[in-house]
Amino acid sequence: MARKPYDLLFKLLLVGNSGVGKTSLLFRFTEDVFTTTFISTIGIDFKIKTIELHGKKIKLQIWDTAGQERFHTITTSYYRGAVGILLVYDITNGDSFNSISMWLRNIDQHAGNDVEWMLLGNKCDMESKRIIPTSQGKQVAEQHGIRFYETSARANINVEKAFLNLVEDILDKILMGEINSLNRSFVIPVFKNKNFIVDCYNHV
Ligand SMILES: Nc1nc2c(ncn2[C@@H]2O[C@H](COP(=O)(O)OP(=O)(O)O)[C@@H](O)[C@H]2O)c(=O)[nH]1
Ligand SMILES: [Mg+2]
After folding, report:
1. What is the pLDDT of residues 125-147, one digit of tens each?
2. Does any domain span residue 54?
3. Ligand 1 contact via 153 beta carbon (within 6 Å)
4. Are 157 and 118 in contact (CB under 8 A)?
5. Which of 10, 82, 129, 201 is the most exposed place for a label (fewest CB within 10 A)?
6. What residue owns the CA closest to ligand 1's atom 23?
7. 3-state SS assignment for residue 44
8. Which ligand is nearest to the CA of 129?
9. Residue 88's pLDDT band (boundaries 50, 70, 90)?
């Protein structure tokens, strides 16, 4: 049988208020570009990037909202099968920070229990327009025991680091599952939650 060009497939999601820079972060990470023109109207579903980590080829399918966040109509189908979530606010926009709790309720309601998530305070290149101090982002992250980065899609700060650390945390969980599972089939039984990973092959 032909070898798949990857060992694992992870579905990741970007969530957060409209305008915080989700699409920009996605383009920065997957294509290393930043463009200010009408990026939010593109309306893509997801982008793919394959990375290599600890000797495993990991295909990332990263989903971006196509404006549904404006109407709070992000539902279970968007979250289905997701293993990682990047919850984004904009450090220059207080509303986007105040919406974190709303997004958390949304994640709680729709995502799997074991989903790995992190908090990103984007647009950290705009220090002069900052409204949310770093300490506030840190506090939320500490409350939930998750990672936190301030990022800039524009200046390319912490974008790759954030994505890669999220992937690394997910991979750590999976490798623990692998050790526990005496895995004979080529599917890694991740977290015993059948909705959790939809396509997770181990070709090692
Ligand atoms: N200064 C700055 N502007 C950004 C950054 N990321 C996104 N933007 C701008 O913020 C606006 C909204 O970005 P977009 O990616 O469409 O946000 P989305 O609605 O969350 O997908 C656009 O004008 C972007 O150019 C950033 O890191 N720094
Ligand atoms: Mg967008």
Report:
1. 999 999 999 999 999 999 999 99
2. yes
3. yes
4. no
5. 129
6. 36
7. coil
8. 1
9. very high
- What number does the ligand 1 atom closest to the CA of 151 have? 27
Boundaries of domain holding 72? 8-200
Q: Is residue 165 part of a domain?
A: yes
Q: Which of 13, 28, 39, 93 to mutate to test the pocket of ligand 1 (most atoms within 8 A of CB)?
A: 39
Q: What is the CATH number of the domain that holds 194?
A: 3.40.50.300
Q: How far apart are CA 52 and CA 32, in angstroms?
A: 17
Model confidence band, residue 55 (pLDDT cutoffs 50, 70, 90): confident
Position 170 in a domain? yes
Nearest ligand 1 atom to the CA of 39 is 16
Tell me how far apart the alpha carbons of residues 95 and 97 are, in angstroms, rounded to a whole number.
5
Ligand 1 atom showing the smallest separation from residue 26 Cα: 15
Ligand nearest to the backbone CA of 38:
1
Distance CA 105, CA 108 (A): 5
With respect to residue 190, please indicate whether it lies within any of the assigned structural domains.
yes
